[in-house]
């Protein structure tokens, strides 16, 4: 039995992790610390009996110390962040505040409770980071490995890179037992509909344009969120303190291929599932037309990284991590989840 503190557990990946962990470790108890920004949603974890939501800010160091001590937390899994690159371009400050100062606050609290007061209580601080800290790859460059030099290009990735360095420094300087995973683009249930896959799925259902940045040929690796959760679980079980591990989905795809697959899946769903045309009458597919007619090219994101690719050899060899989902069936399952859970996303999209 263990007691976990999960920051950002009402967000997309953190929420999926809470569901995953509760099912896989029914004897454990989970405290979720989340301040419920626009991206946090208490309904994401409402049904998980083992999880208690504390609405609070990771920058509140005293609150974090209190939670660690009072709940005898041995494992802290840190997801909380400002996570959307476009928002970091229009307003970087929140990214510096939450991602850098927030991570520092957690590290300070963990150091005090686990090392100073607790005299070295067995513990683990696991930090969730991104492949974006490594910068942008050319078409023939080798994939990012754990030893690739950091070269973050957006305010988002720069703030995550800074937090990664702080986590590393707390291990090196103070002996805090930390691990970090750098993952690729996640997709799956409970993702806020500003990110590519849920945005395009829901736009397609409502007959709204599918806005494609630039030429649509930016490349990303796609990781099903459940595989990511399994990777984190493996890092907690078998990761070595001080180490970092890349977690990928083994699915490197240009955005256009992702978008074409979304269009094909939506068309297929309307052909196969009764009643969808009545529920979503504005969808082209409801009128027998291809969803692809909604594709629209828009001005590229400023500083848009061209390609990310992830080499997860170390996680496979040292953690036994192997992604289980292929993109095609993972995407079909994700669409199905959004169709079956309209009550979750309806309040988040414009009428
Ligand atoms: P998200 O935006 O869906 O959720 C973030 C959560 O953090 C929200 O519930 C929000 O309310 C909470 N939060 C934000 N600021 C907070 C604060 N100051 N105090 C307490 N809670 C706060 O993000 P996500 O997509 O689930 O990403 C989770 C983590 O994974 C982030 O650290 C992100 O950088 C990283 N990551 C995400 C992806 C991806 O594809 N989504 C890829 C790589 C890495």
UniProtKB/TrEMBL annotation:
Q: In the Enzyme Commission scheme, what number(s) does this protein have?
A: 4.2.1.46
Name the top EC class: lyase
Cofactor names from the entry are: NAD(+)
Q: Which Pfam families match?
A: GDP_Man_Dehyd
**InterPro entries reported for this sequence:** dTDP_Gluc_deHydtase, NAD(P)-bd_dom, NAD(P)-bd_dom_sf, Sc_DH/Rdtase_CS
Keywords attached to this entry: Lyase, NAD
**Do you know which CDD domains this protein is assigned to?**
dTDP_GD_SDR_e
Domain (NAD(P)-binding) spans 5-332
List, in alphabetical order, the Gene Ontology terms for molecular function in this entry.
dTDP-glucose 4,6-dehydratase activity
What is catalyzed by this enzyme? dTDP-alpha-D-glucose = dTDP-4-dehydro-6-deoxy-alpha-D-glucose + H2O
Q: Which family does it belong to?
A: Belongs to the NAD(P)-dependent epimerase/dehydratase family. dTDP-glucose dehydratase subfamily.
Q: What is this protein called?
A: dTDP-glucose 4,6-dehydratase
Organism listed in the record: Alteraurantiacibacter palmitatis
């Amino acid at each position: 039995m263990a007691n976990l503190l999960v920051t950002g557990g009402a967000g997309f990946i953190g929420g999926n992790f809470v569901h995953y962990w509760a099912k896989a470790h029914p004897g454990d108890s989970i405290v979720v610390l989340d301040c419920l920004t626009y991206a946090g949603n208490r309904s994401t974890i409402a049904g998980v009996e083992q999880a208690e939501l504390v609405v609070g800010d990771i920058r509140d160091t005293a609150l974090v110390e209190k939670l660690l001590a009072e709940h005898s937390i041995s494992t802290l899994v840190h997801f909380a962040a400002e996570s959307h690159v476009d928002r970091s371009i229009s307003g970087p400050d929140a990214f510096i505040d939450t991602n850098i100062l927030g991570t520092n606050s957690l590290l300070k609290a963990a150091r005090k409770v686990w090392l100073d007061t607790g005299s070295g209580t067995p513990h683990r601080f696991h930090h969730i980071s991104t492949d974006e800290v490594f910068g942008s790859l050319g078409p023939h460059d080798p994939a990012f490995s754990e030893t690739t030099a950091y070269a973050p290009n957006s305010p988002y990735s720069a703030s995550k890179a800074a937090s990664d360095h702080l986590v590393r420094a707390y291990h090196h300087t103070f002996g805090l037992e930390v691990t970090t995973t750098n993952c690729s683009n996640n997709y799956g249930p409970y993702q806020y509909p500003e990110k590519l896959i849920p945005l395009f799925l829901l736009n397609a259902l409502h007959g709204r344009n599918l806005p494609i940045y630039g030429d649509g040929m930016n490349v990303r690796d796609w990781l099903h969120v459940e595989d990511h959760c399994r990777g984190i679980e493996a890092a907690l079980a078998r990761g070595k303190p001080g180490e970092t591990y890349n977690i990928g989905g083994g699915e490197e795809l240009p955005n256009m291929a992702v978008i074409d697959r979304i269009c094909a899946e939506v068309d297929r769903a309307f052909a196969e599932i009764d009643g969808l045309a009545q529920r979503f009458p504005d969808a082209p597919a409801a009128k027998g037309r291809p969803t692809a007619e909604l594709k629209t090219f828009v001005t590229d994101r400023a500083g848009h990284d061209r390609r990310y690719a992830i080499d997860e050899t170390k996680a496979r060899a040292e953690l036994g991590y192997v992604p289980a989902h292929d993109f095609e069936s993972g995407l079909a399952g994700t669409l199905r989840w959004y169709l079956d859970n309209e009550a979750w996303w309806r309040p988040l999209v414009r009428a």
